Amino acid sequence: MVQTIELGVVCLTRTTYEYKTAQKMYRNTIEELKELKDVNYTFIEECVIEVADAEAAAERLLAANVDGVVIISGTFHLGHLALVFSKYIKKPFLLWAYNELPYDGGKIRLNAVCGLNLNASNLYKTGKDDYYCIIGDKIDEKWLAALRVKVALENSRVGLVGYRAHGFFNVGIDDMDLYRKTGILVDHFEISDMFSQPVSEAELEEAEKEVRELFVCKEVNDVQVKKVAALCVSASKFMETNKLTAAAIRCWPEFAANYGISPCASMSILQSKGVILACEGDLEGALSMLAGVALGAETPYLADLSQVNLEEDYALMWHCGVAPANLWDGKSERSLDTYFAAGKGVTAGFVMKEGHVNLLRIDTARGKTRMFLTAGESMEMKKQLCGTYTKVKFEKHISQLLNTVTETGVAHHLVMLYGEYREVLMLVAKMMNYEVIQ
What we know:
By secondary structure, the protein is of the alpha/beta class. It is 37% helix and 24% strand. It has helices spanning 19-33, 51-63, 80-88, 112-125, 141-154, 175-182, 191-195, 201-214, 222-241, 254-259, 264-272, 283-295, 398-407, 422-432; strands at residues 5-12, 39-43, 68-73, 93-97, 131-135, 158-161, 187-189, 246-249, 276-278, 301-309, 314-319, 335-337, 347-351, 355-365, 368-379, 388-394, 413-418, 435-437.
């Protein structure tokens, strides 16, 4: 579901330019903005000219608890005005200048771009980095999409079930650092909290039917199928009861030992329904998945960069069997397998569909949060091994990609999204003060 955002909109002018013309242009802008979906507005309908006007408008936007502010330079204007909004409102700004009007024999009519330049320079020199500049007659919807991601992350409620996987130090997080940067408070749960929710016979029967319709189950026994089904119901209730937007799960080694099977197959099914679950306790992996969902991307896939082939220039985006079931290629056998954890693995097994993909990872190292981005093509391949996977040929040679992730210490889990989202994600990184790694 697309994230709704609260947006403040204001237009700055000065009476020494054609401010009345700018006011008419601004009224047209207001009507056009109202046509955009999933945005609630607080419009300052009269153009802001004096500092007192800016202070009154800023107080109003602050009271409206806006997620971001669109500051339109209708004409050149006082340098104080944008700074007043920045003083009151600690949110991302879109600095927008109207196109200059044709000359009519007199002076420059709007000089709006110079006003934008003034605002950007002033804000930058105060230390504000979460602004973005555009020139034109229409708002930049990529900026709106980026703001949706930021709001979705900040409003999320994320759970850590158990802990990170054994030895996976590189996907661990600092709870207080995450809170300081995003406002997210991580809720911690025991593994048993996820699999011990009550499941009725009717719920179990319906879930088991779904499991058998989705997967060929010849490699697993009836008890294991029922456990997959029961966990689908229990884990879903766990997420709903605790009002979790996403969860990262310590899926081995204790899960299989205590429950009887690993959660992989159940996670594959639940993720295909839009439930955001990251394996191996990878909480920043879960946040990366959340970012993808907020963009409107189809169910994200948290995977390893595996089976690297330097000569043929590709890698498998593979994981032990947890990819969303709906990302199946429609040709390979979609199976349940028990190839690890002494027969308790119970993972999904299939080849994933073809298409253009982005790879994304929000990743913290040495006190700084980064966003890794790259892209490639998911290619057709035969089912050759257990787990869920696809062969990807990247825009850069695989040796260059591997060098980038290893030289910058990017964690070994990457989120794969079908589609192209990098322009928006780079705006997200700017809003969140994340370094971009490409």
